[in-house]
Every structure is written in C-alpha cells, then in structure tokens.
Design a protein that fits this description.
32% of the residues are buried. This protein has a domain of 152 residues: Dihydrofolate Reductase, subunit A (3-Layer(aba) Sandwich). The strands form two sheets. Strands 1, 3, 4, 5, 6, 7, 9, 10 and 11 form a nine-stranded mixed β-sheet that branches. A two-stranded antiparallel ribbon has the order 2-8. By secondary structure, the protein is an alpha/beta fold. 21% of the residues lie in helices and 29% in strands. The protein is built from five helices and eleven strands; from the N terminus they run ββαβαββαβαβββαββ. It is globular and about 50 Å long. InterPro entries: DHFR (IPR012259), DHFR-like_dom_sf (IPR024072), DHFR_CS (IPR017925), DHFR_dom (IPR001796). Its EC number is 1.5.1.3. Belongs to the dihydrofolate reductase family.
C-alpha cells in the first residue's frame, strides 16, 4: 500500500481534569503557560522537513484569540457545518464540512504532512474515540485514531461544562482493551524531545486575586492493534 493510500494517522491532544472536564463556555477554564508551550511544541513538531496539521471544530477555532489565529507553523483545518463560515484572513487554513472532509483536504494537499493532530472540541474528540473502539485494522476509513496525548490534570475544575469520554477504560466488541498507557520513554521517543516526566506544578494564570496551583502529568495513550 502506498503512502497516499494509507489512512491518515490522527493524534488527539487534550488536557482533562480528574472528572474528564476539558472546557467551559467553549474555552479552557485554566491558563497554564508551560502546558500551553507543550501543546505548541508538540503540534508544531521540530527537526522534521514536513509540516504538521491541526484539525479543530468551529467553536475551538473561535475560542482561540483572534491574534493567534491561525495557529502558526501548522496547517489549520476548521470543521463546521456552516459552509459559508468566514475564517477571515487566515493563510494555510481550510474549511471542511466534516472530519472525513478535513482528512480528504489534508490527503489531497500538494505538500505531504508529517503529523496530524485533532485539537478539539469535545464533539470531535468523543466521536473519534468512539470510532477507535470499533475501528478494525482493516477499516476502509480514510483515517485512523491511534494515539492520545493527554495532559492529565490532578486539580479539579468543578465548573467545567464540556467533558471528554473516559476512553482509558474502553473495550472492543470482543472485550479487549482498546488503549494502553505508553511509558514516558515512549512519549519522549515519539515527541523527539525531552518531555518533562512526572507531576508538574504550575500557577493557573486565569485565576485572579488568589493562588491556584495546578498539578498535571504528560501522558501518551496508544491504541492497541486489533
């Protein structure tokens, strides 16, 4: 099978609380500078000749401050059912009507990609995680979901209104586990740089007038071959 015929490998990248909260009012409830730097470094990549791509839903796109749109150094694809949705002056950015359509755009691009990341929101995350649980190795889908880069927060945010499916406990139709947590060495090797290990502690800059220290850990979960 040629590279052009192979399904596009998608990596989900997300930060979630102990109760799997990932958002509030279509934006992040926290502002963690080091964790944001990790997201940027991971999705941009480094040392490779080919560009990376990020796929996101419309609300995730709108949740990014306009001065930071599109995310620089990456091909941006925005998924929206609104065919006339205005992306504004956004170079290297495409509008797609669905995730399969977004994948088709990336697969048909003139320049091949290094890696493609799904960066939100909850509807896209959860739909692809559900697909991964039922996706056979021989699937004819144009993409495959085989990796989750999870920043696991150990600090709770009770006002989250958007949640990630608890994928770690997923099983396939025949009862087999779908995901395994990779070792930190595997994460470092895949990333190509020295990702910090163990619990990280950082001040949440979104909290005003008080100190809120947030603990989290960088994890990688890999889909077990079916």
């Amino acid at each position: 099978m040629t590279d052009a015929m192979k399904p596009l490998s998608l990596t989900l990248i997300v930060a979630a609380t102990p109760s799997h909260g990932i958002g509030r009012n279509s934006t992040l409830p926290w502002r963690l500078s080091k964790e944001m730097a990790y997201f940027a470094r991971m999705t941009k990549g480094e040392g490779q000749e080919l560009a990376n791509a990020v796929i996101m839903g419309r609300k995730s796109w709108e949740g990014i401050p306009s001065k930071f749109r599109p995310l620089p150094g990456r091909v941006n694809v925005v998924v929206s059912r609104q065919q006339d949705f205005d992306l504004g002056p956004a170079p290297h950015t495409h509008l797609a009507s669905s995730l399969p359509s977004a994948v088709d755009i990336l697969r048909s691009a003139n320049s091949p990609l290094n890696r493609a990341f799904l960066i939100g929101g909850a509807q896209l995350y959860n739909a692809t995680l559900d697909e991964a649980a039922g996706q056979a190795a021989s699937s004819s889908s144009s993409y495959t979901v085989d990796r989750v880069l999870l920043t696991r927060l150990f600090t709770e945010y009770p006002d989250c209104d958007t949640f990630l499916h608890d994928f770690q406990s997923d099983t396939s139709a025949d009862g087999r586990r779908v995901w395994r947590q990779a070792s930190h060495d595997e994460l470092r090797q895949w990333a190509g740089w020295d990702v910090p290990e163990g619990k990280q502690t950082e001040q949440d800059k979104a909290v005003k007038g008080e100190e809120k220290l947030v603990q989290y850990e960088y994890q990688m979960w890999v889909r077990i071959s079916m």
